[in-house]
Amino acid sequence: MAVYLHDIPLDQAQARLREALEEAGLGGVLAEEYIPLDERAVGRVLSRAVWARISSPHYHASAMDGFALRSADTREAMPTAPVSLLLGSQAQYVDTGDPLPDWADAVVPIEQVEALDSADQPAADPRKPQAIRLRAGLPPWAHVRPMGEDIVATQLVLPAGHTVRPVDLGAAAASGHTHLWAARKPRAAVLPSGTELIPVGQDVRRGDIIEFNSIVLAGQVNTWGGEAVRFPITPDDFELLCARVQQAADENDLVLLNAGSSAGSEDFSARVVERLGELLVHGVAVRPGHPVILGMLRRSAGAAQPERRVPVVGVPGYPVSAALTGEIFVEPLLSRWLGRGAFQPIEVEAALTRKVTSPAGDDDFMRVVVGRVGTRLLAAPLSRGAGVITSLVRADGIAVLPRGVQGLEAGSNVRVRLYRAPEELERTVFAIGSHDLTLDLLAQHLAERGRRLVSANVGSQGGLVALRRGEAHLAGSHLLDPDSGEYNLRYLGQYLAGREVRLVAWVNREQGLLVPKGNPKGVQGLADLAREDMRFINRQRGAGTRVLLDYHLQRLGIRAEQVQGYEQEEYTHLAVAAAVASGRADCGLGVTAAAQALELDFIPLFHERYDLVIPEEYAQNELLKPVFDLMQDAAFRREVSAMPGYDVSVMGRVIHLGSIEPAERA
Amino acid sequence: MAVYLHDIPLDQAQARLREALEEAGLGGVLAEEYIPLDERAVGRVLSRAVWARISSPHYHASAMDGFALRSADTREAMPTAPVSLLLGSQAQYVDTGDPLPDWADAVVPIEQVEALDSADQPAADPRKPQAIRLRAGLPPWAHVRPMGEDIVATQLVLPAGHTVRPVDLGAAAASGHTHLWAARKPRAAVLPSGTELIPVGQDVRRGDIIEFNSIVLAGQVNTWGGEAVRFPITPDDFELLCARVQQAADENDLVLLNAGSSAGSEDFSARVVERLGELLVHGVAVRPGHPVILGMLRRSAGAAQPERRVPVVGVPGYPVSAALTGEIFVEPLLSRWLGRGAFQPIEVEAALTRKVTSPAGDDDFMRVVVGRVGTRLLAAPLSRGAGVITSLVRADGIAVLPRGVQGLEAGSNVRVRLYRAPEELERTVFAIGSHDLTLDLLAQHLAERGRRLVSANVGSQGGLVALRRGEAHLAGSHLLDPDSGEYNLRYLGQYLAGREVRLVAWVNREQGLLVPKGNPKGVQGLADLAREDMRFINRQRGAGTRVLLDYHLQRLGIRAEQVQGYEQEEYTHLAVAAAVASGRADCGLGVTAAAQALELDFIPLFHERYDLVIPEEYAQNELLKPVFDLMQDAAFRREVSAMPGYDVSVMGRVIHLGSIEPAERA
Lengths: 666, 666
Known about the structure:
The structure is a homodimer of 666-residue chains.
Chain A (H helix, E strand, L loop, with lengths): L9 H14 L8 E5 L13 E2 L9 E2 L3 E4 L13 E4 L4 E4 L11 E4 L4 E5 L2 E2 L8 E4 L9 E2 L10 E3 L7 H9 L4 E5 L3 E6 L4 E3 L9 E3 L1 H11 L3 E4 L7 H14 L2 E5 L10 H8 E6 L3 E2 L5 E6 L10 E7 L3 H20 L8 E6 L3 E2 L5 E11 L2 E6 L8 H5 L2 E5 L5 E2 L4 E6 L3 H4 L2 E6 L4 H11 L3 E6 L1 H10 L6 E3 L11 H7 L4 E16 L20 E4 L4 H13 L12 E2 L2 H9 L5 E5 H6 L3 E15 H4 L5 H7 L2 H8 L4 E2 L6 E6 L7
Parallel strand pairs in A: 14-17, 14-18, 15-16, 18-22, 20-25, 23-26, 30-31, 34-35, 34-36
Antiparallel strand pairs in A: 1-13, 2-12, 3-11, 4-6, 4-7, 5-10, 8-9, 8-10, 19-21, 21-22, 23-29, 24-28, 25-26, 25-27, 27-29, 32-37, 33-36, 33-37, 33-38, 33-39
Helix pairs in contact in A: 3-6, 4-5
Protein name (chains A, B): Molybdopterin molybdenumtransferase
Function (chains A, B): Catalyzes the insertion of molybdate into adenylated molybdopterin with the concomitant release of AMP.
Cofactor (chains A, B): Mg(2+)
């Protein structure tokens, strides 16, 4: 069974493609075109430098509304000894921008003269007087924009390779251009293939995969200055696929063939490339994204430019792999064809919030969220799964763990290639801790107030640890102290003793058991978890909900080993609900809203308070101000109340403010 | 004579517009539309949050090509004690992405099993064996992407106000969306007006002004997410202008009326706004850009939504003022209508390279070039003229000198709102010193090599001063030592004693007198400068060409007072040539290439060497490597040689390397 032909390192794969392109005469700007100079030229890349054809201004121009004159005639003018000039022979009215008469070498602004019709008679029309009177002399070229002040003919206005901005169009027009030489937009065909795929908009059934990689790839191509052409989905039919790929190659500069790039039973891409051209690379040692194919296709004899070779990228099917393949292979290719020089990402150094492992043989493209907490820039790794497209949506950047690196400890510095301006990271609120569904609502409202909420769900205790390490601005927490019945305070003493902390109540919420609609197994309470026919889905260690469960199991005398699925952990209420909804488990412990979201039945068991723990240094910071504002915002409180099982009467109440006393382990 | 109605501070002007918009119900998102989820949605701003409709995956999916099975069946499998599972009842082949059968809870990858047709017979088709043999157990949910791994139904996928990127489309599609709610693109009419204007492409005659502000403004509108509609040029005809503006208001969300916003004889804009609606502001205390008009127009009775008010911005005619008016007033308005939150520029702190003055009453928007020299970030002010659009083309950012500040000393820190990513500034080569036409060619070639050459023409001596102050990476210099006949070395001793410097020859070039075609005044040499009928145009103090002139005038016994125009200074060879070409002067001293560029006659007088002075710390820096590479580059040398009067035989020769000895003033 063929696995990948051969995984080769990324730089080798890139070099092979580069060489093949150069051999095929496709190593530089693909073609140029002479485009009209108008607003549609914005974003185009200049294939030739713009040199000034004419000067700007192209004549000596008045810089003011006033009167053109000979400066020599005004030399004697003094406040007490004015000089009068006759209109016509000695002075002439000019508007701003008007050319200076040949005989003039200066302009006096209209507000600096007395306009006269006779010796002491103010002019009826101040722009058409008989004479003007000045009480100060003018140096030569006063209030004149001399020819070439802005641009002198023949000078460089814009270099080749420059991406046109609106103001550039002004400078090019001012220097006498009516058109610009720009690189032609490379045309890229995007072909999705796979029998299991359905297009966006079609009804989704079990086993169907919604095809969106072609939309993402087409969006990337267009964003990077190309012109994408999306083909319809081709089912897994080798001959049909060959025909479509040939058509794509005949009509386009580049072919992106999505999925089928692996070595599975219906992975035809490599064979298609071999049939229609040359297979250069099958397998690149990057993660995610392994099964990348690079090749060069021939055009049909009947196609335009039949001798032209057309590069093809076999793009892996997993959405994160697909998008990253675009960034790694397609963007540099388009940049080269546009002559703009490859995109140079902005990089920052940031400290990892947790330990990561990485396969030693691969360049590992890890998606991270980046934010500043205090003085430190932190990188929190997102899901590593190639299928988790939300990891790219949420990512602030990519940290590449190079081949040879097998892992990094928490706190290690990594270089992050940013997707956002570094300044945007300064508006990021890092919430690490317990998961609650109202955090999504908070994120939406914060976005409207210029803040980005990034929440990592590590459980209540994990959040307190993150605060202690200085890795979060705030933590959601609902840790019950069984002795006192109080929430969180004792745990604060355990994790944050000596720190100045504000503990603010957020919501009261209901916890209970989530079971499938109709409660088919007749679950009534926690005692049912010990039943032999019951598969439970648990929350991770350190989660407040887990603490709650363990406390009550202990009270009921149920041991963990008696609960089937106790070791199956999820990190959020919604994930627990999803596990129940999909039949993976028979029940789980979670909040009402999660049950309702996935249309499950809910057996209410407890009420609990969920708080926000905020170190005082951040509580007083401008960054978090919108969080506090929202706690008082009627509309926001209304929206939270509308979620099932939530009560906002406590929201914003300060439970504790000030230094934290040490406490015993609860 | 009415000057501006009343210049008010910028924040007041903005507040007046904001209030008027809110009164008219135009303070928020203008309208929304339900757009198809495809690549054309990239760049659109979401008017509603995207919440997941379905989970992704929406079923338990195999993460590998392999066999679905019950993990419990594999519990006993060991390397020495394999377990066999029968296809059909105990195992089922699945491709990556296929749904797991209901009875299965794990997948074993195909490469981890032995596929058998009988007890010891490998399967003919490894995907359709009779049985599979495993030598290791699998935990539950191994190699399975459980339902909701990426997205759980109901969770927040994208917040409202978010600008759509390609990957966002993938996440929205994966979560069950086929369309997105996006803010409708605001339509902005751009109306150029003025009898002196001609459109791009028409033959240019003296007094004509090429109309390009409408192109710049339309480009800005489109870049900022609006949809610009450019109107043809309207001549200065009040009634016609009223009709056109009314039409624009009837059909659009915003009207940008360019020029005529001042108070000159044909400045109709304010009157047009008063006739068709309400004039809110006439004159804003910003520089450049003063005569800004803000108002609200009424629609005609017959128009769509006749009760709608339409804001109008009267945009000043000077190109820099026009573009900045776009940034200051139009961008925030479009952002508000799109619901995206105003653009937050990236700001850096940089030290001014020279003293600047500023009118106390205005917010002064000063264009600056920003670059890093050594450890310091420097801001070099560009031309302040409102007509100098190249100042915006060349600008890396804007430093606002707020009202009340009348000027700043060289070295003062200013905050710069950047137009570029701060990282791009690190690729900027600062060349301050003598002007030479080959620097444009160098700039073009450096651009192809990922460097941006920023050159400030302050003359040879000015360049050495800049190097001494640590404000440049290199300086062009051609300072003749009359005693030795050598170039530059003595001046280095004067300005840079004790510094490690590399002095590298760049070109030999020809200097001479530039005179109009045909040499109408019969100029033969420098002696003619003393003639009464001769108007000279000079270079600025500290320029090498000025040093050369002064030396030779002294030898000829000609005093400065005898030379008419001696005090008229220009900063570049091309500017001198332009002054001669335009008739402002009868002759000037400059290089051959400048004469040829503007088709002047040239009287050759001297040959001189033009060097690059480079502190050793920068000479060894990666930043300048392309400069040294180019000196050896055959194609580049050929291009320089092709310019008239240039000889590259010396290019790259190191004249001096190492510490500079102090020297007496030359």
